[in-house]
Amino acid sequence: MKPLAFLGALTLPVALVAGLAFAQSQVGTAAAVESLRGADPDVDVTTAPVFHQNKQRFVRNYRLQPPLIPHSIDKYQIDMKANECLACHEWRKSGERGAPTLSMTHYQDRDGLQTDTVASRRWFCSQCHVPQADAPALVENLFQSSGQ
Question: Could you say which residues bind heme c 2 here (predicted)?
């Protein structure tokens, strides 16, 4: 029984050494990896922001498409405790801020009853709404608007 116990004790160190050797052999291969835009993943790439706010909102491409956000939301806090979107878009404040009011569907609970506060299932705005951006496509997109 002692020889088998000794063999079991050697298995872990041998596996660790083999894993380390494999990882070292892959270092040269990592340089061949490229991003979708062709950048080396190990090089810091400084780019201009792709966000371009348009005076006019983008048209929707299909019925019931959530509107795109015509401004940056990079520093907005949207979590369990706060939602900065509501500072302008909540129905009580949208008039004085000149912002579009949330759809009344955002004020319905899961049973369809209207409330005065945003429903918890509609709390995380960026789950459906994204900032509009004039950015180059990463992959080919063959989508055609239903309005065409």
Answer: 106, 125, 128-129
Q: Is 52 annotated as a binding residue?
A: no
> Quick one: 116 and 73 in the same domain?
yes
pTM of the model: 0.57
Do 27 and 65 sit in the same domain of this protein? no
* Listed residue (62, 118, 114) closest to 90, CA to CA: 118
Q: What is the pLDDT of residues 57-76, one digit of tens each?
A: 777 888 888 988 888 888 89
Per-residue pLDDT tens digits for 8-51: 666 767 667 776 766 666 655 555 677 776 767 677 766 555 55
**Cβ-proximal residues to 101 (8 Å cutoff; 6+ apart), any chain:** 89, 90, 91, 94, 95
Number of domains composing the chain? 2
Residue 88, marked binder? yes
